[in-house]
Amino acid sequence: MYLRNHWYVVARTEELGRELMQRYLLNEPYVMYRTEDGRPVALPDRCPHRRYALSAGSLIGDNVRCDYHGLAFDPDGVCVDIPGQEKIPAQMCAKPVPLVEKHNMVWGWMGEPEKADPARIPDFHWMDKPGWTCSDDSRGFDCHYQLVVDNLLDLTHETYVHTKTIGQAELVEAPIEARRENGAVLVDRIVRDCAAPPLFSKVVDFGGNIDRYQFVRFEPPCYIWIDARAVPTGTNDFDKGLQWVVMNALTPETDDTMHYFWGLSRHFAQDDEDMTRDIHEALIRTFEEDSGVLKIQHELIQSDAPGAMGNNINADRGITLAHHLVDELMAVEQAGA
Q1: pTM to 2 decimals?
Q2: CA distance 42 to 31
């Protein structure tokens, strides 16, 4: 079960073109493409006639033709042609997904179309913020999306999983502050007077120990921002240290897989292309490390006995708050309120 009346990232802008693409979103297949004037389109990837995949069909102008019996559908899902039949039944249609392009991504409203409000698209303005340099990408993870939400809400794992990039021993000893605020969950951690982790030292010369800040924000159903900062110990001038924001959009593909869309926008060395490449490559390594851990975790959870649950520790406070928030929203949505 997934929250439906929300925006989900369904593709990066550059992924969609004049080729039919199949993509599973929230356990359902969709066919996606662009019209001749560049408008993104997403339709259910099942022909309403005999359920054949429209993505296996042909794009004729702006219309998708099913290559089983030849029915054609326009970008609004309206059937415009049935070979050998003049009258087209009203039920012979494909319900389109409302789409909006923003921040180099295509956002889809997966619930009731009349409730699709672009003002509710999550704030990813760091993707194209003046004075910041952004690197972005996407990849698949072989696990339930909630495991990645949990992973990002408890960054203690960096100490053990990401030892070559952003991990350090001091993280596990630093307390966190977790709270709900204005429909979001916030998790803050500050580590004072510690050595800079490997990736930080590679991109900024701190000249000694640092004060490290992690400000994590979760918004339902699947968005997490990590505001990471580091300055020489005892100073507060973030403009002279390290500051970046990692934006994470975690769209369920199926119950066992997910689409991971991300961007890292930094506020230092904005014109250094070599640094952009090095940071991008380091992030890819961290995602690969997380992906391996979460795949194993997902497989073991799937093999658990019915009703089996893990046990919480202090570092899980943000995760617990996020679970409660999503459960409350799910109850409201299921009640039709």
Answers
A1: 0.94
A2: 6
